[in-house]
Write a structure and sequence with these properties.
Elements lengths: L2 E6 L2 E7 L6 E4 L6 E3 L3 E8 L3 E10 L1 H19 L5 E13 L1 H13 L3 E7 L3 H12 L6 E5 L2 H15 L8 H6 L12 H11 L15 E2 L7 E2 L2 E8 L3 E10 L1 H17 L7 E13 L1 H17 L3 E7 L3 H10 L7 E4 L2 H10 L19 H16 L22 H41 L3 E6 L4 E4 L1 H7 L3 H4 L10 H17 L3 E7 L2 E11 L5 E10 L1 H48 L10 H28 L3 H4 L2 H16 L2 E7 L8 H22 L3 E9 L2 E8 L6 H10 L4 H11 L3 E6 L5 E8 L5 H14 L6
Parallel strand pairs: 6-7, 7-8, 8-9, 13-14, 14-15, 15-16, 22-23
Antiparallel strand pairs: 1-2, 2-3, 3-5, 4-5, 5-6, 10-12, 11-12, 12-13, 17-18, 17-21, 19-20, 20-21, 23-24, 24-26, 25-26
Helix pairs in contact: 1-2, 7-8, 9-12, 16-17, 16-22, 19-20, 20-22
């Protein structure tokens, strides 16, 4: 089927020709396989200008049906508006199930679409067909309803109805005339010719002819013979239109998909796509098949027929009674009936008698009722006796009582019951295997939970304890039985109950894990609550994990305390070095300059050249003194105690701007009446200093905005540049590798202020640093205590 793409407005339509009606179809990629929920999809195709085809797959619930029908209504309104009448094809071939609420919602949705002239339901499921026919019988629809068991019949019916509804005569279309499905003038259901054709097709033994040797053209390849564990297949092409498959071993569900994939590759490689062909399956060497495999085979075969509808016949030979019953039951809803043969030769004879263009849909013939009442009662008693003597405790069907001969009228019924017994045994085996695996996984999980020292609890959504590991029973000094059916709040102090209940409720309501810390008996615990969802996607249980982090907390506090003392020691050392440089080195250099300048005052005979050299020496000393003063200023800005924080920062920004040729926009507010602690001033200045130095070194910026605000009870420092920016996560890793401590030093100083530091940056977008901390107004007593502590710790600083 060829497809083209055409533009309509700002969208692209994919056009093709319907193989069943010859009418042009339209679709879009965003209309195909649209996923709703977790197991439901929808595809929409426009057939001509009056037919809407909606194909749904998966399990239908009310929520997904509501979403998908809203999606469909939007497409209808966009393409046809609110007045144009059309015919609706509901393709339910891929539906695996539907809830009662979903069915009711779907019926209401269809009745609210006033434009529908007729609804054509396409489904092979007898249960959905029965529900649709009952709904139609009860007059629950506002329009005409037709039920078809395959898509080709549904689209033909819709096309015929669409042309029939036209008010003006139209030129007849060959494919539409051929696809017309009249509902009034049907031929007799059981005419002599029809029964004869059915009998000849379904019972080839009645039409046996003398076997005449026929030459066959057979072709195969090595890649056409896939091998699996316990199962293998051999494919060959016969007479250019017959795909012959021979199966060996036990067919499991995992074998079905690869087998169909190989079969599809062979069909395409042989050029049979679009041409009539036969499928012959030899299963003489097939030892058995699972129920899941047969169901999967039926599902895939239905999809195969939709994709490659030119199949002329499916012939199976070599099937025993159980396999024959199993295939018949599994393929009951399939659009193709299976033709059973005894041997390969008989299968080939059927293909020679059967035209490749013959219809592949074979109606099933059901036997009539027994004429005599005693005969019916005899068969009923016999069947009841058969069912009553089945020993369901014994696995297998070989020991079933009352096996019937091939000429028994209900032999197929007994074979079907035997197959059901086999399938039930298989289900029990799978259940026992699953239960054993579940018990093993539970033991593994229990061992893992008991091996950890963390507290682990499984609770209901209301906090009722279901299970606990050994760490919990040891911690609470209670056994497992004593904990069952108890509330978690029964073992928490009153101060922690409200917080724990709030986190538990949040997890149940949102379905998101919760992380929080609690303090119990001078111990700190890091807690995590994980939700467990039921089949309805609701949280009905939760898992609680608690880890004792008291040691980690204490270590962090010790590190924090040591860091504080280290920074204080660093500042005092800077103060001492700055004072020594200013009082000693700078003074000595100044004295040396004076002596150098007056060295030759009493010696007039000194040459000008020597005096010039002396002057240069004096200039070098003056530059050295200037550098020392800058260094002293960086080590300990004297303005913090003399001019105050704001003026010191303003002066520093001006000098930084002149030195680095970077414009600084400084704004301060709300600091006039604040009396900040000296440590707070120093740490705040150091944070600003480090941030500006980082901008000068790495940012390549032209403008820096500095905002220092006092807003009770906090102070806020924001530094923002227009530089190149960086990735914070990558920069932190790089800084650790290169042993750079700039950002880490800023974080430690913010921690000393009991504040927070937020860093925002992105490559090409500059960097923004926001520091927020509560300010503490200093008192004279606090300052004296601090000076006394420094004097005791660093005696040299008072000299």
């Amino acid at each position: 089927m060829m497809s083209n793409r055409i533009k309509t407005g700002d969208k692209e339509l994919i056009t093709s020709v319907c193989p069943y009606t010859g009418v042009t179809t339209y679709t879009r990629p965003e209309w195909t396989d649209v996923i709703f929920g977790t197991n439901y999809s929808l595809s929409i195709t426009l057939v001509g200008d009056r037919i809407l085809s909606v194909r749904v797959k998966g399990y239908s619930t009310r929520d997904v049906v509501a979403e998908s029908t809203d999606f469909t209504k939007k497409i209808i309104e966009h393409r046809w508006g609110l007045k144009k009448e059309f015919f609706y094809i509901g393709d339910f071939t891929g539906i695996t199930g539907m809830t009662k609420d979903a069915r009711k919602y779907y019926v209401d949705y269809l009745n609210n679409l006033r434009q529908i002239k007729a609804f054509i339901l396409c489904t092979p499921s007898p249960f959905i067909m029965l529900a649709a026919k009952l709904t139609k019988r009860l007059n629950l629809f506002n329009f005409h309803v037709t039920v078809e068991n395959d898509y080709s019949s549904a689209v033909k019916q819709a096309a015929w109805k669409a042309h029939k509804e036209l008010a003006v005569p139209v030129k007849s279309h060959t494919s539409l005339e051929a696809s017309r499905v009249p509902t009034v003038s049907k031929p007799p259901l059981f005419s002599a010719g029809t029964i004869k054709r059915w009998a000849c097709a379904a019972l080839p033994a009645l039409n046996k002819q003398k076997n005449v040797p026929v030459s066959l053209t057979r072709f195969t390849r090595e890649e056409w013979n896939p091998q699996f564990e316990g199962y293998s297949i051999k494919f060959e092409l016969i007479n250019d239109n017959i795909i012959h498959k021979v199966s060996t071993g036990y067919l499991s569900v995992e074998h079905v998909g690869p087998a169909f994939a190989t079969q599809e590759r062979i069909l395409k490689a042989c050029g049979l796509s679009g041409h009539p062909y036969f499928l012959i399956n030899g299963i003489e060497e097939l030892t058995g098949s699972s129920l899941k495999a047969r169901k999967q085979y039926a599902r895939l075969f239905t999809g195969w027929i939709e994709k490659y509808p030119e199949l002329s016949g499916l012939i199976v030979y070599g099937a025993n009674r159980l396999l024959r019953s199993g295939l018949t039951i599994a393929m009951y809803t399939s659009p193709v009936s299976i033709i059973f043969a005894e041997s390969f030769e008989e299968a080939m004879a059927i293909t020679r008698r059967r035209s490749p263009h013959a219809p592949r849909l074979l109606p099933r013939i059901f036997p009539g009722k027994a004429n005599r009442k005693n005969t019916v009662q005899h068969y009923a008693d016999e069947l009841n006796c058969f069912l009553g003597n089945i020993d369901w405790e014994i696995e297998g069907s070989d020991e079933l009582p009352g096996k019937k001969s091939d000429d028994h009228p209900f032999k197929t019924v007994y074979d079907a019951i035997s197959l059901i017994k086999t399938d039930i045994d298989e289900l029990f085996r799978e259940r026992e295997t699953a239960q054993a695996a579940l018990r093993e996984s539970e033991e593994v999980a229990r061992a893992l939970l008991n091996a950890t020292s963390d507290l682990a609890l499984l609770m209901q959504s209301d906090g009722t304890i279901i299970a606990a590991n050994h760490a919990v029973t040891t911690f609470l000094e209670k056994n497992q039985l004593a904990l069952n059916e108890k509330q978690i709040t029964d073992f928490l102090p009153q101060s922690a109950v409200q917080e724990a209940c709030a986190h538990l409720k949040a997890v149940v309501d949102t379905g998101a894990p919760a992380h929080f810390e609690t303090r119990l008996s001078n111990h700190y615990y890091q807690n995590t609550i994980y939700p467990l969802f039921n089949a309805d996607k609701r949280v009905d249980r939760v898992a609680l994990y608690s880890r004792d982090i008291t040691g980690i907390k204490e270590a962090h506090e010790q590190i924090h305390g040591l860091t504080q003392e280290l920074i204080k020691a660093q500042e005092n050392e800077r103060t001492r070095i700055a004072r020594d440089l200013h009082d000693n080195v700078a003074q000595d250099l100044a004295s040396l300059i004076i002596r150098s300048d007056t060295l030759f005052d009493d010696c007039k005979e000194i040459s000008p050249d020597v005096r010039q050299r002396t002057k240069k020496f004096s200039d070098v000393l003056k530059k050295t003194i200037a550098s020392i003063r800058d260094l002293v200023y960086d080590l300990r800005p004297p303005g913090l105690t003399q001019m105050g924080l704001v003026k010191t920062i303003d002066q520093y920004c001006v000098e930084f701007s002149n030195k680095n040729n970077i414009e600084i926009d400084l704004y301060t507010a709300g600091l006039e009446r604040l009396h900040l602690h000296t440590d707070t001033k120093i740490n705040l200045f150091r944070i600003l200093q480090e941030a500006l130095n980082n901008v000068a070194k790495h940012a390549d910026a032209t403008l820096i905005k500095v905002r220092l605000l006092g807003s009770h009870p906090d102070m806020i420092l924001r530094i923002e540049d227009d530089g190149c920016g960086f990735d914070p996560a990558v920069r932190m890793v790089t800084a650790l590798k290169e042993k750079r401590m700039g950002l880490k030093s800023m974080e430690e100083r913010v921690n000393l202020l009991c504040g927070t530091l937020a860093l925002h940056s992105r490559e090409g977008s500059g960097t923004r640093i926001v520091v927020k901390f509560p300010y503490n107004q200093e008192t004279g007593c606090e300052e004296e205590n601090r000076e006394r502590f420094l004097a005791q710790s660093f005696p040299s600083s008072s000299s």
